[in-house]
Amino acid sequence: MRGELSADVIVIGAGAAGLAAAGQISRAGRSVLLLEARDRVGGRIRTRHEPGIAVPIELGAEFIHGSAPLTRALLDSAACPVVHAADSHWSVHAGRLVRRDALFPQVIAAIGRTSVLQRRDMSFADFLSRYVRLPGEARQFALRMAEGFDAVDTAQASARALVAEWTGDILGEAPQSRPAHGYDCLLGALLAPQQAGALQLKTSATVRGVRWFRDQVRVAGDFAGIPFRARARQAIVTLPLGVLQQSDPAAGAVHFSPPLTAKADALRLLASGAILKMVLRFRSAFWEEIAQGRYRGAGFFHAPGAAIPTFWTAGARAPLLIAWVGGPPAARLARRAPRARLTLALRSLQALFGRAVDVPAEVRGCYEHDWQLDPHARGAYSYVRVGGDGARADLARPLEDTLFFAGEATDTHNESGTVAGALDSGRRAAAEVLGGA
Ligand SMILES: Cc1cc2nc3c(=O)[nH]c(=O)nc-3n(C[C@H](O)[C@H](O)[C@H](O)COP(=O)(O)OP(=O)(O)OC[C@H]3O[C@@H](n4cnc5c(N)ncnc54)[C@H](O)[C@@H]3O)c2cc1C
């Protein structure tokens, strides 16, 4: 990249939010420069296709939660079918693996019997221990679900925000599903119409600094190690929350000048949660064969108390189990060596299946990505801390009709932490840019 690049609008980050925003603006006839630090688009959508495995390996986003109309429409436009994900739950109880499908409805019913959150917010851990009447197993499930599904530290997470999400669309009536051929189909669908539009996409272009005044944005960065500059009248920032919260350039921080003082409270009241996801590949889907086929078609396996407490299947006969931990335990495990993590995952699985199978003898590979250490992610997805009611809206609010903000952390419709929320936020920021034109 030589000289100074220019466009009407610069979009920083080509994940789901950035691609959605850039597409909408370029289709409206305004020139867009989309700058992406990685050598690929998609950000926290990262699909691998491995020879010999019919299903995609998703290192980041995998499920379509709730109705997600935009996600489904985009996949449909790319002729990518959506398949239901098995939703049966098996859990170790009194030393045996038993069906446990009713725990979440039981938790939601118990939460519905208290109104304390209408008066004040508190941590999810406090809320559960002081105000929700639940038997021990369901209580443990609720804590694991908060850590696992929402990647939160339950001692810090806002109970109000968590309950709003759990009783909203993404965990509501619509069954969980997956893009059959992988979430990367969605990226193809987002990119296809842009090739014809007024869009320049630069990958391997890391933004280091943003100088901005009303109606003027100057961006500096490096393109594969070589400095570049770019300018535009407006910019949409889709940097992940964990990146926006960094101050050290070596850790991925982007320097804003003047600083984003108006965002300081929002950045303090939101947190970037940790997830450890390991895709384990086996010689065969052995769990379908053991115990007279009892676990054939199973969705989730839970090993409460194990180092890796949750596993799920990736579709009938697929020889993959996904090992999953969220929240502070995930942050701790992420600091261990990959080999040690794998050993813990296999031990946890052995605890699930007992003597019916020699789990380490079955394993053929393990795929993972460290989202916590990744300087372009700095965490898996965002959550709200206690008292952070308006923080997502504050983060989303444009500055001086010049800097606009998108990304899953800016979602205000209980879809944060999802691809659907990121896409919607990109569309919202694009509409703000176009509305102010
Ligand atoms: C392990 C894991 C599992 C998940 N599972 C699901 C799931 O099942 N279903 C679901 O809906 N969601 C899931 N999610 C969440 C989902 O992936 C995200 O909410 C969504 O992809 C975020 O999109 P985004 O555009 O907001 O951010 P990102 O995808 O992170 O995009 C931001 C972009 O900015 C780029 N960037 C960062 N720094 C710079 C810089 N300095 N200069 C230029 N570019 C930069 C990044 O490289 C990235 O491409 C999961 C996430 C993780 C990590």
Major sheet characteristics: 7 strands, mixed
CATH class of the largest domain: Alpha Beta
Class based on secondary structure composition and strand pairing: alpha/beta
What is the total tally of β strands? 23
**Rg calc:** 22 Å
Overall shape: it is globular
Looking at CATH, which topology of the largest domain would you report?
A: FAD/NAD(P)-binding domain
| Residues in β-strands, percent | 15-25%
The low-confidence runs, each spanning 5 or more residues with pLDDT under 50, are: none
* Fraction in helix: 25-40%
First-to-last CA distance: 28 Å
Catalogue the ligands: flavin-adenine dinucleotide
Structure description:
Helices cover 32% and strands 24% of the residues. It has 437 residues and is of the alpha/beta class. The chain has three domains: 4-44 and 184-271 and 385-435, FAD/NAD(P)-binding domain, CATH 3.50.50.60; 102-171; 275-370, Polyamine Oxidase, Chain A, domain 2 (Alpha-Beta Complex), CATH 3.90.660.10. The protein has a seven-stranded mixed sheet with strand order 8-7-18-19-20-17-21. A five-stranded mixed sheet has the order 1-13-12-11-15, with no helix packed on it. A five-stranded parallel sheet has the order 10-3-2-14-23. The model has no long low-confidence stretch (mean pLDDT 94). Residues 12-18, 35-38, 43-45, 60-63, 65, 206-207, 238-240, 243, 252, 254, 275, 277, 371, 376-377, 380-381, 407-408, 417-420, 422 line the site of flavin-adenine dinucleotide.
